[in-house]
């Protein structure tokens, strides 16, 4: 499989076509943005870490029965994935209140939710990814009823698998964002990434933040936090 033309450039990744009709290559960048692109920076080594962490977790989820777009890691920052049509939703799962949920409901960060909370945003930079519910999703045909039900059940199952897995590495899964896509044969698969860019990870003992909030909130030690996640998960 050889890389061909660039199909898309996002804030943290580029996607290339390949000589194989049904495959793409994702290339992870060190660029970091926050607050819908208002804050920009570079996190040295981030691309390579997010590539490794995402692939590791996706392979783990595949073994647990979740279909993903993962095919094969090509090098430090590039991976072959199945070509999908991205469903234009950010699927957010929360176990502990933080970030926008803490703000919206007036909760202090760290408040444990009695059960997981599932949220959807419509992926649209110009609109700032507005939150939507099932009714918007179906009325706007962002997904069909059947797709939405599959997405919800995968998201909650992924939360259970990941939370338990990360706990063994002394990482508390506070919340995270997923994206799903439809492959050329119509299967819904987990796509995009699962990394410190898209999850909140807190040390189970100290509560230390080991994710992109260190960049968003200028807490320092950003690179070290990403490195620590890589080490705890892959031993590197
Ligand atoms: O900002 P908020 O609290 O809504 O974020 C919830 C979770 O979703 C966090 O883990 C954050 O990293 C992730 N997220 C994301 N991309 C976005 C918005 C949120 O990865 N555009």
From TrEMBL:
Pathway assigned in UniProt: Purine metabolism; IMP biosynthesis via de novo pathway; 5-amino-1-(5-phospho-D-ribosyl)imidazole-4-carboxamide from 5-amino-1-(5-phospho-D-ribosyl)imidazole-4-carboxylate: step 1/2
Keywords: ATP-binding, Ligase, Nucleotide-binding, Purine biosynthesis
Keyword ATP-binding: yes
CDD domains (UniProt xref): SAICAR_synt_PurC
Reactions catalysed according to its record: 5-amino-1-(5-phospho-D-ribosyl)imidazole-4-carboxylate + L-aspartate + ATP = (2S)-2-[5-amino-1-(5-phospho-beta-D-ribosyl)imidazole-4-carboxamido]succinate + ADP + phosphate + 2 H(+)
Enzyme Commission number(s) from the entry: 6.3.2.6
Family annotation (InterPro entries): SAICAR_synt/ADE2_N (IPR028923), SAICAR_synt_PurC (IPR033934), SAICAR_synth (IPR001636), SAICAR_synthetase (IPR050089), SAICAR_synthetase_CS (IPR018236)
Domain named SAICAR synthetase/ADE2 N-terminal: residues: 6-232
Pfam families: SAICAR_synt
GO molecular function, a single term: ATP binding
Family in the record: Belongs to the SAICAR synthetase family.
The name this protein goes by in its record: Phosphoribosylaminoimidazole-succinocarboxamide synthase
Source organism of the structure: Emergencia timonensis
């Amino acid at each position: 499989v050889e890389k061909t033309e660039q199909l898309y450039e996002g804030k943290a990744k580029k996607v290339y076509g390949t000589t194989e009709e049904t495959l793409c290559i994702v290339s992870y960048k060190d660029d970091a943005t926050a607050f819908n692109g208002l804050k920009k920076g570079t996190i040295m080594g981030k691309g390579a870490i997010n590539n490794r962490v995402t692939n590791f977790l996706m392979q783990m989820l595949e073994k647990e029965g979740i279909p993903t777009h993962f095919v094969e890691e090509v090098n430090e920052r590039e991976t072959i994935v199945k070509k999908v049509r991205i469903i234009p939703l950010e699927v957010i799962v929360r176990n502990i209140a933080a970030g926008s949920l803490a703000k919206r409901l007036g909760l202090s960060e760290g408040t444990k939710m009695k059960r997981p909370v599932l949220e959807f945003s419509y992926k649209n930079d110009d609109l700032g990814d507005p939150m939507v519910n099932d009714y918007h999703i179906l009325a706007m045909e962002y997904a069909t009823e059947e797709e939405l039900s599959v997405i919800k059940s995968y998201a909650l199952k992924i939360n259970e698998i990941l939370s338990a897995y990360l706990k063994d590495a002394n990482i508390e899964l506070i919340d995270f964002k997923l994206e799903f896509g439809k492959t050329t044969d119509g299967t819904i698969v987990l796509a995009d990434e699962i990394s410190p860019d898209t999850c909140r990870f807190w040390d189970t003992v100290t509560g230390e933040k080991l994710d992109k909030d260190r960049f968003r909130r200028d807490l320092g030690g950003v690179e070290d936090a990403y490195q620590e996640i890589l080490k705890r998960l892959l031993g590197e």
